[in-house]
Amino acid sequence: MLRSDYDRSLADLQTDLAEMGRLVESATQSALDALQNQDVDLARQIIKDDDEIDRLQDGLESKCVALIATQQPTAVDLRAVLCAVHIAAELERMGDYAEGIAKICIRIGDQPLVKPLIDIPRMAELALKMLNESLQAYANKDEWLARKVCADDDAIDDLYNQIYRELLTYMLSDPRTIERATYLLWVAHNLERIADRATNIGERVLWLVTGYTVGNRPENRSLR
Description:
The chain has six helices and no strands. The chain has helices at about 5-35, 40-70, 75-110, 120-140, 145-175, 180-210. The longest helix is centred in the first third of the chain and has 35 residues, at about 5-35.
């Protein structure tokens, strides 16, 4: 395979990952819309559409196996292929979390939400921003942006803890809200996990670009 053909194969992987990211973003936003509007039909469609994310992951992994088997890439090229496999797995799990929110929406049905959705949509906004930036970092091999994604996870954790404390207060003050508050807590947990997966992508990009991750780099380089 000529180098130009090999580069095109790597570009194809990047295109597949971008499409997976688009589908995950759409599924997550749609799941929040379904929850806010208590739209069970939309939730069921999100669950059905998750198969497309799985299909893209399977196709990307097959391409990566073929590249490794036929080209035996070394050094940076091998890291690029392995990085694509890792990112695809992270995106597939994000899709599962979006699907999980849709399933929660179905379980809630037409029960009134225990509280207006204010912080949960904010969590979703931040998590999806991290997802987009992590994929931009991968596409551009942007070390600074990858480090920013990793650092931004703290804001998601803070929001999750805030939501947890607020929902716990509802449960303690009125035991009749326990079930409905738990549903929202599960939604927040899934969003927190989406952000964690975006962080994992950021760390994998650091490994691709530098050969090190956040935890094992020999020097501590701050964002600036």
